[in-house]
Amino acid sequence: MVLFLEEFLGAGRLTSMVMAEKLIDGRVIEACQQGDRAAFQLLFETYKDKVFSIAVYSSGGDRAVADDVTQHVFLKLFTAIRQFRGDSEFTTWLYRLVVNACHDERRRSKRLLPLGETVAMRNASDKKPQEKHYARLEVAEAVQAAIAQLKPRFRLPILLRYIEGLSYDEIASVLGCSKGTVASRLNRGHSQLAKRLSHLNNPAVWGE
Hints:
This protein is mainly alpha-helical. It is built from 10 helices and no strands.
């Protein structure tokens, strides 16, 4: 399940992380703290997709809610960034803001909207290469749908680990829990996803 998630959730993650690391350094953060709007714009452009991604998964796929959460996070960040002292990585500190905003939104709405039913896979034993490509897209959609159906306490660790690439220590810092709790929630999330995605165990989908 771990390799499965890395295959279908981690594509492009390392590239985006490296790009963000090159663009955002201590000087940019300090400029933002001093009210430099150009620096804050750079910060926004670098992290807006990551913030939105977390919000989408947290809201069960509701993009309108995710838009609202993303806007709220960056409006708050404009003043809250002055509180950042460098005790942790900036991304860890930012993700904590995002997770808290998502929790606040759930408390307000008191409901979660599922992304949709798990996509049923067709028998791909006779698929041509192009058809196999579309089959893999269906798998990716099924994985995303299954994650959206997890309870938030299992969904967020999965998201932070496999989409954002955070370590166990970083996830624990973001979620405000112990490293052992992170490991436990990931294990339970893996188990639930394995059951939801058991119908995807079709070698033809992988081109084998």
